[in-house]
Amino acid sequence: MATLRLGDTAPDFTADSSMGTINLYDHLGDSWGILFSHPADFTPVCTTELGTAAKFKSEFDKRNVKMLALSVDGAASHKEWIKDIDEVQDTTVNFPIIADEDKKVADLYDMIHPRADNNLTVRSVFIIAPDKTVKLILTYPASTGRNFYELLRVIDSLQLTAYHKVATPANWKNGEDVVVSPAISTEDAKTMFKKGVTEVKPYLRMTPDPTS
Ligand code: BEZ
Fold first, then answer.
1. Does one domain contain both 141 and 83?
2. What is the CA(205)–ligand 1 centre distance, in A?
3. What is the pLDDT of residue 2?
4. Taking the mean position of all CA atoms in its chain, how far away is CA 97?
5. Tens of pLDDT along 86-96?
6. Which of these, 52, 27, 32, 45, lies nearest to 154 by C-alpha position?
7. 5, 25, 93, 139: which has the fewest C-beta neighbours closer than 10 Å?
8. pLDDT value at position 1?
9. Same-domain check for residues 32 and 103
10. Ligand 1 binding pocket includes 45 (Cβ within 6 Å)
11. Cα 38–44–49 angle (5° rounding)?
């Protein structure tokens, strides 16, 4: 499988999970999706990540994003591990964990990086738009847990910039001023963005978040 790149169509798959058989496209329907891999069951960092992900589910729901985790162990193992996660993280894992024992999905999404580890996945994140194109790819090593605030932040940016001709600046958070897309002239931007446009430089034009 060639490496997936931004704008590629997310490969569809059908796989077992902690919540039964799942087909990616059926599961996502018209929603956005986030697919994130974990190196293995019963590992410490993954336990904290999945507990955190469960606590963030209502925030992903608000953004119309369906969550799907993946680990290269079987569904029975996932179900046992979920009992531990729920206990130690004081939560309820409320989204499916793909059981990818044969590494079919890991191969499709290029989640195994042999120079990091031959058998376990790295911590990959794929954000998939309703049209099934891949909008964001992140790759963390097994030793570094992900920041779920950052995942929500980047989803806010992806969704805003999908529907408005803007981009989001460094460290942007939902509701803050945004950058006018370079493809738009300042004159057109002034008509398009009713809340006003500030020209800092001819190539750097700011406007209030058009959705807030
Ligand atoms: C972990 O989730 O804690 C982990 C998994 C594989 C290697 C290192 C850490």
1. yes
2. 43
3. 67
4. 14
5. 999 999 999 99
6. 32
7. 5
8. 58
9. yes
10. yes
11. 55
Co-location of 176 and 100 in the same domain: no
Ligand 1 centroid–CA 118 distance in Å is 14
Which positions are annotated as active-site residues?
Answer: 46
User: Which 3 state secondary structure label does DSSP give 118?
Assistant: coil
Domain CATH for 195: 3.30.1020.10
Give yes or no for residue 142 CB within 6 A of ligand 1. Answer: yes
Q: pTM of the predicted model, to two decimals?
A: 0.96
User: Does the beta carbon of 46 lie inside 6 Å of ligand 1?
Assistant: yes
Residue pair 160/211 in contact by the 8 Å Cβ criterion: yes
Q: Write phi, then psi, for 49 (nearest 5 degrees).
A: -65, -45
Report yes or no: 86 and 109 within 8 Å, Cβ to Cβ: no
Distance from residue 12's CA to the centre of ligand 1 (Å):
27
In a shared domain, residues 93 and 23:
yes
Domains in the chain, number: 2
Q: Whose CA is nearest to atom 7 of ligand 1?
A: 142
Closest ligand 1 atom number to CA of residue 44: 3
Three-state DSSP at 156 gives helix
State the pLDDT at residue 212: 84
Sites in the chain below the pLDDT cut of 50: none
Q: State the pLDDT at residue 109.
A: 98
Are residues 28 and 66 part of one domain?
yes
Residue 151 lies in a domain: no
